[in-house]
Amino acid sequence: MPTVSSVMTKNPVVCVVPGNVESVVKTLTKKGLTGMPVVNADGKYAGVISRRDIFSNHEEAQTAMVMRSPVPVREDEDVSLAAKQMVDQGKRHIAIVDANNKVVGIVTPQNLLKIAQEKYGEKKISEVQYSRVIPIWEKTPLKVMFNVMNISSIFVYVVIDDNGKMIGLITDRDIFDKINVRRDVVSSERGMDEDEDPWSWTGMRNFVQYAVQKNMVEIPSTPLSEVMVREPKVTYRTSKLKDAIQVLLDGNFNQIPVLSANGKPSGMLYDLDIMRLFV
């Protein structure tokens, strides 16, 4: 197995503790990130903070969120240790540190998928321990779906019709696309730069649910059938893992629905499920 240093994303964007959540939101948004390491005044590892940490605990201070951060991994360690930390802690962002505990990189499942494809790709999906799938009715209003995601901390669902047939996929990102945020709210709350486009999803994706939690915007009652991803990429229990991984890599996806032979949803294969193969 290669070392972490050979696959990590080097010189990652970091934030400093103590700090405030608003500045973290701005950095995540501007850089198009879902998470980043946190360092102290000496530049040493203090934790990791992610978009979903903020969404789930928006009233907490940055320091409180960091205290629940994953254990870092040394740059000279085997990649399997980084995978183990992801699986054991249920975290997708693992900071990589040097001998002086200074952050030198970050690893997410995407960094390890190519290795998994080469090492375990000939396995069938049925041989992999993937996650349960949760169906949601196509006529469920977006506002209800948003609350379901918030309560369950599950952000991907298959959408079914009256007959239980899968007709689409819904993620938190699809809901965000339908939320209107007033320009004056965005500018005042985020402190956006003048040259930043507030309506670009590269610039907005990390901000929207934070705005919702702060009661800055209202979620419409549009049914899921009008918002969901139709004909999403899928895999089958009999398919090879290498093909499913390629779909994840090509689309920069975190998950792919698994279907049985009759086309009914059987589960959801997450990139974290694939990380279990390294353990």
Please characterize this protein's 3D structure.
The protein is built from 12 helices and 13 strands. It has 279 residues and is α/β, with parallel strands linked by helices. The longest helix has 12 residues, at 109-120. 34% of the residues lie in helices and 19% in strands. It has helices spanning 21-31, 51-56, 62-66, 79-89, 109-120, 142-152, 172-176, 183-190, 201-204, 208-213, 241-251, 271-275; strands at residues 9-10, 15-16, 35-39, 45-50, 73-74, 94-97, 103-107, 135-137, 156-160, 166-171, 235-236, 255-259, 265-270. The chain has 2 domains: 4-107, Roll (CBS-domain), CATH 3.10.580.10; 125-174 and 225-278, CBS-domain, CATH 3.10.580. The strands form 4 sheets. A 4-stranded mixed beta sheet has the order 1-7-6-5. Mean pLDDT is 82; it is low at 181-206. The chain is flat. The termini are close together.
Q: Round the Cα radius of gyration to an integer and report it.
A: 19 Å
The structure class reads alpha/beta
Distance between the termini: 12 Å
Q: Secondary-structure element sequence?
A: EEHEEHHEHEEHEHEEHHHHEHEEH
SS element count, helices: 12
Element layout with pairings:
Blueprint: E1 9-10, E2 15-16, H1 21-31, E3 35-39, E4 45-50, H2 51-56, H3 62-66, E5 73-74, H4 79-89, E6 94-97, E7 103-107, H5 109-120, E8 135-137, H6 142-152, E9 156-160, E10 166-171, H7 172-176, H8 183-190, H9 201-204, H10 208-213, E11 235-236, H11 241-251, E12 255-259, E13 265-270, H12 271-275
Helix pairs in contact: 5-11
Key words describing this protein structure:
279 residues, alpha/beta, CBS-domain, 2 domains, four-stranded mixed sheet, 13 strands
